[in-house]
Amino acid sequence: TTDVTPLDRDRLARLHEREREAFRAARPRSAALAERARAHMPGGVPMSWMVKWPGDFPVFVESAEGAHFTCVDGIDHVDLCLGDTGAMMGHSPAATVEAVTRQLSRGITTMLPTDDAIAVSQGLAERFGLPYWQFTLTATDANRHALRYARLLTGRSKVVVHNWCYHGSVDETFATLDDHGETIDRPSTIGPPVPVSETTRVVEFNDLEALERALAHGDVAAVLVEPALTNIGIVLPDPGYNEGVRELATRYGALLVNDETHTVCAGPSGYTGAHGLQPDLLVIGKSIGGGIPCGTFGFTADIADRIARSVELEDIDVGGVGGTLAGNGLSSAAMRATLEHVMTPAAFEHMVPLADAWADGVQAAVDRVGAGWNVTRLGARAEYTFVPRPPRTGQEAHESDDFELQQYLHLYALNRGILLTPFHNMALMSPATTAADVAAHTTMFDDCVSELFAGR
Ligand code: PMP
Could you tell me the keywords of this UniProt record (predicted)? Predict the structure, then answer.
């Protein structure tokens, strides 16, 4: 490629310190709440990973609406994180709020179905082409249940996943490859029940030969994939890759599970629908409830039939698939309204061009300063990586990361009222995101890299 401007790490460290000070100075109320929060929550956060947000303490939210939120210090933010997809349809979309408000005074959870669940399952069947659906409260649980059914139906034990994948806190997925291509526990895995190599085989994304080797043992119940990786940066499939995965899973008797929780940014029927893929099971959560907790997995008629024949009625409540709150009235009302009125083809026609405009803005700035980074696009989502060419595997994406640089860029953005998805450099567009929101990011990013790569 062309000349790459080297990154001056001393300069980065100096600028980072300046931004940390600016962050503290601008947010006294978040600072005070963070201090109080430490009394009974370790790190002052409701969930441990939230300590990783850039800045010395998390931003406390006052309110969120559409594509913006206001923090307790009264600062308005363009939200390009959108709850890492939970709020992909915008914060508190009107149709969802209306349906949920109605349901709130009609009973939140009863362990009995409401008719909304019928409409949701029918809508999902039409959208994703799989006839049968079951509900959970998280995508994590939907993945967990999909894997349990796959093991039940195949009588096999192992799961195949991609290197550096993320599918929620599912035990079998916290696996990576060592230098010899062996499956090992992902670094920093917290208390795995057994060494993950007992349950899992890891293969690189875009490597069909490795997948065939993993399947050839004849002991694989399920291949659990994102059809494009989105949790280690975005890694797009080579032409024919997903079709090859389908063909190999079939040939070796494993069930194929597409986790569309993030890749639904590709269109109203996800990457699966946009590219005519044919998984045996499909998992999705987060966005389809407009932010109300929900998750679901769909499957073929053959699988539904085989499950019905293998699970005893008497023990069906304690089989390891379930959840007292699953399919509750509130969650079902939220999914119905969101799917019918918010997550529409028209919404994507608005969102996808905005993601392209965001990507164009980032790429232009990167090229102007010669940073040697690239931008990857996936429907309503885009991401930049600190290497000149898009990574083809999870490993390449993992190696391209630069934690300090990433924290700096995120903090610089936050200090100028823009929230990026944490842990990588990703932006997601909602139906409420505007061209002005994207332009604000473009200007901010251009200023940021100009200063970082001084003189360019
Ligand atoms: N699948 C994918 C692809 C995800 O990215 C995530 C969360 N980032 C999940 C599943 C799990 O979602 P949840 O945390 O809501 O259970």
Answer: Pyridoxal phosphate
CATH number, domain 9-89+345-452, options 3.40.50.300, 2.30.30.30, 3.90.1150.10, 3.90.180.10 = 3.90.1150.10
User: Is the domain covering 94-342 a CATH 3.50.50.60 domain?
Assistant: no
Does the pLDDT at position 362 exceed 80? yes
The domain ranges of the chain are 9-89+345-452, 94-342
DSSP string across 175-227: EEE-TTS-EEEPTT--S-SS-GGGTEEEE-TT-HHHHHHHHTTS-EEEEEE-S
For the Cβ of 261 lying below 6 angstroms from any atom of ligand 1, the answer is: yes
pLDDT tens for 59-78 read 999 999 999 999 999 999 99
- What integer pLDDT is reported at residue 456 of this predicted model? 61
Average pLDDT rounded to a whole number, residues 102-122: 98
Residue 26 pairs with which residues in a beta bridge? none
Q: Going by CA atoms, what residue is nearest to atom 9 of ligand 1?
A: 168
ipTM here: 0.99
What is the 423 CA–ligand 1 centroid distance (Å)? 14
What integer pLDDT is reported at residue 239 of this predicted model? 98
Read off the pTM.
0.98
Q: Kindly report the protein residue whose alpha carbon is nearest to atom 1 of ligand 1.
A: 167
Nearest to 259 by CA among 415, 150, 409: 150
Residue 259 beta carbon below 6 angstroms from any ligand 1 atom: yes
Residue 17 has pLDDT above 60, yes or no: yes
Ligand 1 contacts CB of residue 226 (under 6 A): yes
